Amino acid sequence: MRTLLRGGRVVDPAGGFDGVADVLVTGDEVTAVGPGLTPEPGTEVVDVTGLVVGPGFVDLHSHVHSIAGQRLQAMDGVTTALELEAGLMPLARAYAEAAAAGRPLNYGFSASWGAARAQVLAGIKPDARIESSLAVLGNPAWQRSSSPTELAAWLSLLDGELAVGALGIGVLMGYAPFTEPAEFLAVARLAANAGVPTYTHVRELVEVDPAIPVDGSSEIAMAAAETGAAMHHCHVNSTSGRHIERVLTTLDRSRREGSRVTVEAYPYGAGSTAVGAAFIDPERLRMKGLGPSSVVMLESGERVADEARLRELRRVDPGAPCVLEFLDERVSADRALLHESLAYPDAIVASDAMPVFWADGIHESTEWPLPPGGSTHPRTAGTFARALRLMVRETGAWTWLEAFRRCSYLPARVLDDVAPAARRKGRLDVGADADLVVLDPGTITDTATYTDPTRPSVGVRHLFVAGVPVITDGELRADALPGRPLRGEPR
């Protein structure tokens, strides 16, 4: 199969090119880029005049493991959606089930620190499903520190997952915030020795809880410096809240000193997690200046009335998904904090996309458009289009070249050492993977809201995954499931 995208504004963040050119795709590879390319007979020619053509977005932080959820992400310009913060276990089963069901987008997983600890410390056998992972987040049995024997046991589990191709280690430290800091250093050493990154949801900041064993963001910087590991700081906007300036200063100092620290952010003032998470505890909410009314149950839409109701929800169904409002997007000062996290040099855009649920816990649908009544966080459908609207169209903080650098090129570079196949992603030059997005620069925007979270973004006119069209003329192709696994090199 050959496709020629003719006359678009081609943006290649790898080479710094931004200009009008044609792009020739042959099979799953970009085989020519330049003006006035002459197609061979049988080549499909697509006129993309006036549109922006760039490498598809690489999402390092997606908890979407379904065709339905990935279709929403496709409409947002994503071509590769990876579960790296939480990870899944057992890894082989996660990859096998995704391959058997088919995926619109490329996919991949890290080794799950949380699942490994839960298996050793609480006897909870992982089953490679994000729904099960959410259900155990509120279980205190795995949140304690480990004995030396237990530490060795779950480190061995992680090492086994790395040996069969995990894309690094996902660390949900924020869900077990009082564990011994030496354990985190042990994980960093394991990652450094294996040559893989870590992806961490950090523990609380010292400004929030002076009794925390170590400041969450400082811990990342210290572990990177001590071990040499490549350490990725997940959703710095939500874990930093109103302390974002101090956190970014800490991370900037670490990077200037040579540590391998990368940062991601998403453009929303509310996060989403399981209601049983440690940081949804009423007392910990008060430390952040929040309260029960900052918590909205995702499936029912209930805004929690008081602490008694919050404790009941946490006790009855700790895995129930909820939204936590940590900033007020209606307030200019809070919007400025979100802008600061996105504007930070080299900050990567990542969605933290959540599963889509319907009534009775159903989390998959092969219908398109999606059936009504789906529940999720709007970032699942709108993160990248929203970031482009805010940072390119409305404020001019990013050029299109910079936007593709943050949405495509930089996230792919996080994976270069662990997955050499990633080196062909996030770029638009000869030899690059044919994972491409073609968007309308004047109309690209999010439409998903907290009350209607499954409304697809608009403005993505074409999307190719491994050279196969997933979106054509703005319409998703329900028969397209070309997603391929991205894996680490087995050891």
UniProtKB/TrEMBL annotation:
Gene3D superfamilies: Metal-dependent hydrolases, Urease, subunit C, domain 1. Residues 44-470 form the Amidohydrolase domain. One of its GO terms (molecular function) is hydrolase activity, acting on carbon-nitrogen (but not peptide) bonds. It holds the Pfam family Amidohydro_3. It comes from the Bacteria. Keywords: Hydrolase. This is Dihydroorotase-like cyclic amidohydrolase. The lineage of its organism: Bacteria, Bacillati, Actinomycetota, Actinomycetes, Pseudonocardiales.
